[in-house]
Write a structure and sequence with these properties.
Helix content: 10-25%
Structural class: alpha+beta
CATH class of the largest domain: Mainly Beta
Largest sheet: 5 strands, mixed
CATH topology of the largest domain: Jelly Rolls
């Protein structure tokens, strides 16, 4: 009996000894961590826009550590860097657009300060953002378009800062109206020193496609549309992109043409129930301060100033004294143009007569 008890006790102890290691080998009980929200993936075009802005900052010929740097210039540079950082960490296209807009505005102000030109300012403080949906756009609206330099897109009324390919110089404004409603675009000067409106650059109804001359001093575009949701876009291009004026040219609405010849007469024929104007801009681009010498027009050449205009159907002649640009405007974007160019050979300068020597030689 005691032998049986010993065997039983020995087996129980052996079982416990072998069970303990088995218990120790069991995996510890773990609690699953909560799932992290997915990282938002921005469209590739939006990521490219941020990268392009970063490369633009890297190409700036500016050294913030250079002695004598104006504090105001350094402040704008830092604002551009901060905007780039916000753009790289933004989670929605709308946030990226807001960051890039702020960054480009800082660069425009920075360049103006460095060049000694008037510094543009914002029209009004920004309003709070509209409620955002999961896609990052206001509820019920499509996501905002990808930002593109020198292009302004909007809907309805608003005032927008102008970014120029050649700051401080004339430029071309290409405007596209995507709505059938009436639209009016005005040039605005809004700087730290002056706020003024320069008048209408163009007006039109329907799907307007117009090109207008953009003066150097204009800093903003004021767009007025009858319908709040009317879509439009504007692109700023160098003046050298203007289409050439050929011997004959036909078109409608607003246009800017380049002229590279010598003295000529331009016959302007306009058709349509609208007010129209054809204006010559000298190639020196100094406007009213132009002091380029005029050619010697032959006798009988039709006289004209720098511009001709009319209402409804009309035919007038405009002198083109030298190379420059032709700015054509027709209110409401209507009217038809037919231009014909005729070179003119200037009159030769008058011959100088030699004065006879009043002194007689001594006999």
């Amino acid at each position: 009996m005691w032998g049986e008890v010993s065997l039983f006790a020995g087996g129980w102890v052996l079982g416990m000894v072998t069970a303990v290691p088995l218990l120790r080998r069991r995996a510890p009980v773990t609690v699953a961590a909560p799932a992290l929200p997915p990282v938002p993936v921005l469209p590739f075009a939006v990521q490219e826009a941020v990268t392009a802005f970063g490369e633009e900052l890297a190409r700036l010929p500016f050294d913030p550590t250079e002695p004598g740097t104006a504090p105001a210039v350094l402040k704008e540079y830092r604002a551009a860097l901060d905007a780039y950082e916000r753009g790289t960490s933004a989670g929605t296209p709308a946030d990226v657009m807001a960051a890039l807009h702020a960054g480009r505005a800082a660069l425009i102000r920075m360049e103006a300060r460095q060049a000694g030109r008037p510094v543009p300012i914002d029209a009004l403080p920004r309003l709070p953002d509209a409620p955002q949906s999961d896609e990052g756009a206001p509820d019920g609206e499509p996501p905002p378009p990808v930002p593109e330099r020198f292009v302004i897109r909007g809907t309805g009324n608003g005032e927008h800062l102008i970014d120029r390919p050649e700051p401080g110089r004339f430029a071309l404004l290409e405007f596209r109206n995507q709505d059938a409603e009436y639209v009016r675009v005005e040039g605005v000067i809004r700087t730290e020193d002056l706020v003024d409106r320069d008048g209408a650059l163009l007006t039109g109804t329907g799907h307007l496609r117009a090109t207008s001359l953009l003066k150097p001093g204009l800093t903003h575009l004021a767009v007025g549309a009858l319908r709040d949701g009317a879509g439009w876009s504007a692109r700023v291009r160098p003046l050298t992109d203007a289409s050439p004026l050929e011997t004959e040219w036909r078109g409608t609405g607003y246009h800017v043409l380049s002229y590279g010849g010598g003295p000529a007469l331009l016959t302007v024929q306009a058709r349509g129930d609208t007010h129209w104007r054809a204006m010559f801009v000298c190639g020196c681009l100094r406007g009213w301060d132009c002091d380029c010498p005029p050619p010697r027009w032959p006798a009988g050449t039709p006289d004209s100033t720098d511009a001709v205009h009319g209402t409804a159907d009309g035919r007038k002649t405009l002198r083109l004294p030298r190379a420059g640009y032709l700015d054509l405007s027709a209110s409401d974007g209507g009217g038809e143009w037919y231009l014909t160019l005729q070179p003119v050979r200037p009159s030769p300068p008058p011959q100088r007569t030699r004065r006879k020597n009043a002194r007689r030689s001594a006999a």
